[in-house]
Amino acid sequence: MGTSVSIQDLSLSFGAVTVLQTLNLDVADGEFIVLLGPSGCGKSTLLNCIAGLLDVSQGRIFIKGKNVTWEEPKDRGIGMVFQSYALYPQMTVEKNLSFGLRVAGTPREEIAKRIARAAEILQIEPLLQRKPAALSGGQRQRVAIGRALVRDVDVFLFDEPLSNLDAKLRAELRVEIKLLHRKLQNTMIYVTHDQIEAMTLADRIAVMKGGVIQQLDAPQTIYNRPVNRFVAGFLGSPAMNFLDGQLNGVSSPVFKTGNVSVPLDRYAFEGNGGSRVGPCVFGIRPEHIAFGDAANTMPFATDAEVEIVEPMGSDTLVWTKLGGHNFSFRVEAEKTLRNGDPIRIGFDPARASLFETQSGNRM
């Protein structure tokens, strides 16, 4: 499989502010890459650099092996879908779809063929004679995607295309975009701050912070083995539990926080695992906590007390204290728990993540 988009040592500064720092990223042919991160992390800026809407300060961008660093956007072989639909209100859907092709002087038969194909893929054939004002938000976003589709390009760039839609529509269009990618097999680079979108759509996720890619990997790898505390805290809903404490013992390591000691002989340390002595942060996800009788089958178990119960529909999030820290876990919706109930909780430390307090890196 060849490389579709290659970004080499890319940096971008606005005056004294560095937005992207010596960034490297290779996207394979037909791959769906999601750029994920909080507002201001540089993900949309990176997408705009690939699209040619921003001039880079240094570095190079290759699309299909061709150096496009200084090429015009129209010459890069990309189709872009923005957060705002940016449709011409006075034109019908059909005219909106064909506008770029007409300007480029594409033959009429070819335009008709491409519009028919895009309309069929996106299921917007009945809407072709309507104007944008007569469309719902989801239909408008489909037309915006169609406008990129008719260009017949190698690489599609999506800049938070679903963030203007309500939750139900977002979920529906997410499925459609995934099906679209399966049908077309084109390379897609997709920007979002929504981790559910990232986890469900991506072949690989690039988690960004401060203009730097923190981790680039398959969604499940990032979820289960985050490289640092930032990535661990950003991915996952409800969020990972973090406990500040102390790591003691080299041959049989133990994590201590408050009155709680967790044996770590089952935890797989990476490399030398730091010094294995000193301050560290213990992280474990709410869904990896066992409750009640199941807790006693775990390598670590302790007694606790229910503090807050949050019903979520399909399951319930329960909050308690562990070693003086707030600590949440998930239980089935049928379980009835009340504030003040005594409970037994347990987990397997092998499923946890351990981070250095200073650097935040995984141990």
How would you characterize the overall build of this protein?
The protein is an alpha+beta fold and 363 residues long. It folds into 2 domains: 3-226, P-loop containing nucleotide triphosphate hydrolases (Rossmann fold, 3-Layer(aba) Sandwich); 238-356, Nucleic acid-binding proteins (OB fold (Dihydrolipoamide Acetyltransferase, E2P)). It has 8 helices and 21 strands. The protein has helices at residues 43-51, 93-103, 108-122, 137-149, 167-184, 195-201, 219-224, 229-234, and strands at residues 3-14, 17-28, 32-36, 58-63, 66-67, 78-81, 155-159, 187-192, 204-209, 212-217, 241-248, 254-257, 260-263, 278-284, 290-291, 300-305, 308-311, 315-322, 325-332, 342-347, 353-356. The protein has a 6-stranded mixed β-sheet with strand order 6-7-8-3-9-10, with helices on both faces. A 5-stranded antiparallel β-sheet has the order 13-12-11-14-21. The chain has a 4-stranded antiparallel β-sheet with strand order 2-1-4-5, with helices on one face. A hairpin with a 2-residue loop joins strand 12 (254-257) and strand 13. Helix 2 packs across helix 3, helix 2 (93-103) runs parallel beside helix 4 and helix 3 (108-122) packs across helix 4 (137-149). The model has no long low-confidence stretch (mean pLDDT 88). One of its GO terms (molecular function) is ATP binding. This is Sn-glycerol-3-phosphate ABC transporter ATP-binding protein UgpC. Residues 5-235 form the ABC transporter domain.
